[in-house]
Write a structure and sequence with these properties.
The protein is built from 7 helices and 9 strands, in the order βαβββαββαβαβααβα. It is of the alpha/beta class and 200 residues long. The strands form 2 sheets. Strands 2-7-1-8-9 form a 5-stranded parallel beta sheet, sandwiched between helices. It has a 4-stranded mixed beta sheet with strand order 4-3-6-5. Helix 1 (21-29) crosses helix 7 and helix 5 (133-143) runs antiparallel to helix 6 (148-162). The two termini are 15 Å apart. It binds guanosine-5'-monophosphate (5GP). Guanosine-5'-monophosphate (5GP) is lined by residues 17, 41, 45, 76, 78, 80, 86-88, 106-108, 111. Guanosine-5'-monophosphate (5GP) binds next to strand 5 and strand 6.
């Protein structure tokens, strides 16, 4: 993919919506020692709250999204919720590797596993598990960014996603945020140091 000599890794965080993976990913991005940059996904959904185009997502129309699919511009993409498409652009990952940084992803379970299959030797795929479905519902309601119908849709999907946890390299249980954050830093640091030692 990238023609630079830097052997960039893929750090994938996947989880049901509301399980806290975004908080964990943001925390990891603040650790200079990890040398990470966030893979900004493209999405056809509308911006929410204070989201910024080009920082949180590349917000594009459904039509543009479909033309990227047709042109083979995505490393992976999913229709995560009906009519809401999300995808990782190949050029986004190459851009980050060209900066000499490892790429961290906040993507859905199917997309995370797809990246792992595509790059098995340079990916760590981590699943963030919420304490329970009931707790997930409470968190989504507290967030106040979705209406009840959308929350129910996310909860229904979460049950299916939880069943995929064993397919990931690691599962971090997010009962206690502080512990989960620390565990995530140790895990990613360990993975990056180990692969450096192997001279990959
Ligand atoms: P949200 O609408 O809450 O921002 O995201 C909904 C879900 O889509 C989350 O699980 C998020 O991680 C996932 N997602 C975001 N970007 C991508 C992507 O590029 N590919 C895939 N497969 N899922 C994504």
């Amino acid at each position: 993919m990238s023609d630079s000599n830097f052997n960039g890794k893929l750090i994938v965080f996947s989880a049901p919506s509301g399980s806290g993976k975004t908080t964990i990913v943001r925390h990891l991005l603040k650790q200079p020692v990890l040398n990470l940059a966030f893979s900004v996904s493209a999405t056809s959904r509308m911006p929410r709250g204070e989201e910024i185009d080009g920082t949180d997502y590349y917000f594009i129309s459904l039509e543009t999204f479909k033309s990227h699919i047709k042109n083979g511009d995505f490393l992976e993409w999913e229709e995560v919720y009906r009519d809401n498409f999300y995808g990782t652009l190949t050029k986004e990952v190459n851009r980050i590797w060209a900066l000499g940084k490892h790429v961290i992803f906040d993507i859905d379970v199917a997309g995370g596993l797809r990246l792992k299959r595509k790059f098995p030797d340079r990916t760590i795929a981590v699943f963030v598990k919420p304490p329970s479905i009931d707790e997930l519902k409470i968190r989504l309601k507290k967030r106040k960014t979705e209406d009840d119908e959308k929350i129910n849709m996310r909860i229904a999907k979460a049950s299916v996603e939880l069943a995929t946890a064993p397919q990931f390299d690691y599962v971090i249980k997010n009962d206690q945020l502080d512990t989960a954050l620390e565990e995530a830093v140790q895990l990613v640091h360990g993975y990056l140091s180990e692969s450096d030692e192997q001279g990959e």
